[in-house]
UniProtKB/TrEMBL annotation:
Pfam families: ABC_tran. Residues 298-321 have a biased composition (Polar residues). It is a peripheral membrane protein. One of its GO terms (cellular component) is plasma membrane. This is ABC-2 type transport system ATP-binding protein.
Amino acid sequence: MTNPDAAISVRDLRKSYGKFTALDGVSFDIHPGETFALLGPNGAGKSTAIEILEGYRDRTSGEARVLGVDPGAGGLDWKARLGIVLQSTGESGNATVREQLAHFAGFYPNPRDVDEVIAAVGLEEKQKTLIRKLSGGQRRRVDVALGIIGNPALLFLDEPTTGFDPESRRQFWQLIRGLKTDGTTILLTTHYLDEAATLGDRAGIIAGGRLIDIGEIDEIGGTEARVPVVRWVADGVAREQRTTTPATLVAELVAANGGAEVPGLEVVRPSLEDIYLELVARHETAFPEHVEEPPSGKNASTGSATGVSTGPTREVSTGSATEKEIAR
Ligand SMILES: Nc1ncnc2c1ncn2[C@@H]1O[C@H](COP(=O)(O)OP(=O)(O)OP(=O)(O)O)[C@@H](O)[C@H]1O
């Protein structure tokens, strides 16, 4: 049964496109006021789930409630309480930034102030510019502005900062923090794991249409996944060891080195990205059939199967017993 107190509640959500199962029984709740990051590789089923929750796509089976309403049957009042930033930039037309926002503000019963929104997305200097003359990143800011102009209770952000330069991303994060402070519930999908870690209260990871983990950002992957890694160089060979007592190991290494500095020494705590990559890789090993793309589909998978780029895979062991030499 769905949770009546949740902003979003789904139970055993399934979606098939012909014989291909894009969502294979997903259940989760998103609490009012929280920022929830839905993560997963290309083709995992995130957009499918989000579009079902936005009321744009039918589900094959399962239960869903969004702000207490079945998204398959949500009326205009319900839609007016949602803010939606789709994955792709919409048609820009021949309107200026300000005209477009003022136009959309007119559709909502309780819109935000147009000037405030323009300032919030950092487009003051471009407010009189035709949207088609903006850069890709600036247009994406217009998408975000259009998503929040209606003062939504629930904001869907599907890869909102793709194409943003680093400074714009940080400005955008500030904007999202402000919305969060105002009590807006946010469902965010992103391939930037640092973005998820910075903005999210909780995260869910989808792979192959299944939810493989869910929890507070710093609990994803469990305690084991967060065991620090100590790296150093001995006899010209890079070594690393996972240990719950890194200080002890560092002291041992220093002692073994006659009290001198240990070359290449670093203690690294796995980031959300490290943990995510490990979880997804583990899932893909366990369910290789989920990795394969369907014969036809809207999203051809590009790049790495895990959806984010990373350096060479490192093999490490947990505890103090084993250490592994790695090629650098
Ligand atoms: N209309 C459709 N018809 C057939 N297959 C589809 C359709 N829409 C999506 N799919 C397939 O369903 C799977 C899930 O797609 P979805 O867009 O939900 O993934 P995603 O997690 O959002 O991926 P990305 O990170 O690349 O945006 C993919 O394999 C995709 O090809």
